[in-house]
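Researcher: We're teaching a course module on how sequence relates to structure. For the next exercise, students receive a sequence and then see the predicted structure as tokens, so they can try to spot secondary structure elements on their own. Here is the exercise chain.
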Amino acid sequence: MEIQLYKTHAYGREKNNGAHLYIIPEIKALRVEWFGYPTEEEYKAIILDGLEVLKEKKLEYWIADTRKLELISESANEWTFTIALPMGVQYGCKRLAFLLPQEYLAQFSVEEVAQSLEHQIKALKIDLQIKYFDSLEKALQWTI
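Model: And here is the predicted structure for the students to work with:
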């Protein structure tokens, strides 16, 4: 399976905050590999760029690789759920896979987070499947 680097957003003095956007044509997927601590504005710009790629390339799956992402603000998180997720579904996204750090999966109940997110999705009346993984391989298997 070919994974193509599409674009990199790198911010900060040492360019160590941002994301790499990859396209996986075989499975119609976009992988956004986050790194560092982008500001809220940078975070939103990356998400919006990813949404445009999703729409332009007619992709159906979004893999959010957050294993190297520092925390994002609560307002950025809220924006993601209220603005970005509905846009993604409108643009054709059917599945959203989150790659989380192993220690996060071990420390927190992902089921609780997933249930909360499912309630939000139902409240927004959008049709999107979301699942959490600790490896890219597992996420890729789910999207096939």
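Model: If you want an answer key for the exercise: Residues 30 and 62 are 5 Å apart (CA to CA). The chain has a mean pLDDT of 87.
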